[in-house]
Amino acid sequence: MAHNRLGLGRLETTDRGDERNRLAALGYRQELSRVLSLFDNFSVAFSYLSPMVGIYSLYTLGLGTGGPRYIWTMLVVVGCMMLVALVFGELSSEYPLSGALYQYGKYNVGPRYGWFVGWIYGFALLATVASVDSGAVGYVTSLSNIWFKTHFNPASNVTIFVVTGSIIVLSAILNSIGAKIMGHVARFGVYVETIGTFGVFLALAIHGFHQGPGFLFSTQHVEYAKSNPLGLHFGGNWWTGAALVAVLANVYIFYGFESAGDISEETLDAQRQVPKAMRNALLYGGIASFILVLGLLLSTPQAGIAGVVTGGVNSILAVLPNWLQDFFLLMVIIAFFSCGTAVQGAGARVAFALARDGALPFSRAIKTISERYRTPANAILVGTIIPFLFLLLVLINPSKPVHILWFDYPANVNALYALVSFATSGIYLAFFLTVFGAFVARRRGWKPNGAFTLGKWAMPVTIGAAIYLLLMLLNIVWPGTLSSGRAVFNYGWVTLLVMLIIIAIGAIYETIARPDRSVSRHSPSK
Fold first, then answer.
1. What does pLDDT average to over the chain?
2. What is the dihedral of CA 219, 224, 225, 227, to 10 degrees?
């Protein structure tokens, strides 16, 4: 970017001119409102990653499958994901376009490859919207029952539909009235996440921890069926059994930083700021998550982890004054809302990017930009309708295992949760395909010239990121019996089967409609 000593106004004009030129070189013109700062961009990425949402949703599964020692798997996940963030940072600097992963695959490998990445990634994002927003139901009903003396049942299908649907609609309204509003919501989410992670740790520390440092390195014998609080059996193996499952409690949290790239066309100085936002969101998310889990582990009652696994995070916070419990409960609800809003915004940008290239049904309508707010209004509508359709799956909730083909569908797991179990596997598949695409491009001689490049470290970092993503993708989808520890995350064969079905649907549509032909018309040589 050009630097100018004559004043900020002139510098901003020059930078925006450079950004328009870069879009033009990639075959596009500036249509969206470029109003997001580095902190706004970081906030959206961080809100999507959301340590509070992840920890409050998955802490008991991590503890129940890996014991207190599972906290250290977080360092492995964050460290390996940083390799991915570096690769994505380089790609986002080279291709500062809405749709991020779709664009990276399109330019690095080809239109057909990029379309498949966009299909998988976009579907996973919209499944995540339904997942995150439905996850808030228990906390919303709990706070309502405490404050307003209501008697909402969080397990009721009607309650889940109404609460989740309301959150989806409210997020859509805020996303529609301007990228800056989305940025403000995400900023507020960062403040709330900071209070809800570091604040919880401080509150528990002041009350007094019950465990010493040695507890953090213990397994509490979860690798044995007789002492596992979830009744799981790892054959007495922690490293090759329990740890491979417990790590998923962190794998399911540490992504979302890539959404900084989805809003590149609305971010000032995107070629420089988006790579920073990705790295900062992952790093700060890792620190905040580690601090929160550390506080929860050290506050485990002397009676052991079984009560915590059964009672959840709230059983630990129960030692705090009622008003403080209610305050943190409110923070959790806001974090869920901020996360859902950020994911919906990212998913809408992927839909917009695909539609702008004519790669979706009804592309002409979906790519429409609001004249008043300069947001992809119809794409946001798509990001509202599809999660609503997913939400109807809460009505399917068998009371006993159902035999399907060669496996059993678990009892008391509604079909919505089975679908959204695809979200993480779909994200990891899209991540792997994107990083592999960068590897292919380098082998073909691609040399990025964006504001952020990896230089001589490019190939080692890319290979390391690809290996991690492939191994963890296999770890996520690898099926097991319903009595195995792996099934508490992927429901046995369900996650793998759902992923294959979604890929098959995409393959059928792509074969019949050939959207890649439209994409190729919007893929000028770099």
1. 92
2. -50
pLDDT reported for residue 416: 82
d(CA 475, CA 478): 5
For the chain, the helix, strand and coil percentages under 3-state DSSP, each to the nearest 5: 70, 0, 25
Under 8 Å CB-to-CB from 214, ≥6 apart: which residues?
Answer: none
Instruction: Calculate the CA 274 to chain-centre distance.
Output: 17
Element (H, E) at 434: helix 415-443
Residues 6+ apart with CB under 8 A from 409: 398, 401, 402, 403, 418, 491, 494
- Nearest of 103, 179, 78, 44 to residue 450 by alpha carbon: 103
Specify whether the CB–CB gap between 422 and 165 falls below 8 A.
no
What distance in Å separates the CA atoms of residue 371 and residue 374, rounded to the nearest whole number? 6
What lies within 8 Å, CB to CB, of 510 at 6+ separation is 112, 115, 116, 119, 516
How far is 334 from 130, CA to CA, in rounded Å? 16
Q: What are the pLDDT digits (tens) for 504-518?
A: 999 999 999 999 999
pLDDT at 526 over 90: no
409, containing H or E segment: strand 407-409
Asked if residue 300 has pLDDT above 60, the reply is: yes
Q: How many Å apart are CA 481 and CA 470, to the nearest integer?
A: 22
Residues 6+ apart with CB under 8 A from 13: none
- Mean pLDDT score, 13-19: 62
- What is the three-class DSSP state of 412? coil
Do 185 and 40 form a contact (C-beta atoms < 8 A)?
A: no
Residue 83 contacts residue 439 (beta carbons within 8 Å): no
pLDDT at site 420 = 72
Residues 104, 113: Cα–Cα separation, whole Å: 10
User: Which residue shows structure tokens 């995350």?
Assistant: 489
Q: What is the 3-state secondary structure (H, E, C) of 81-110?
A: HHHHHHHHHHHHHHCCCCCCHHHHHHHHCC
Bridge partners of 408?
A: 403
Which helix (H) or strand (E) segment holds residue 392: the answer is none
Predicted pLDDT at 482 = 67
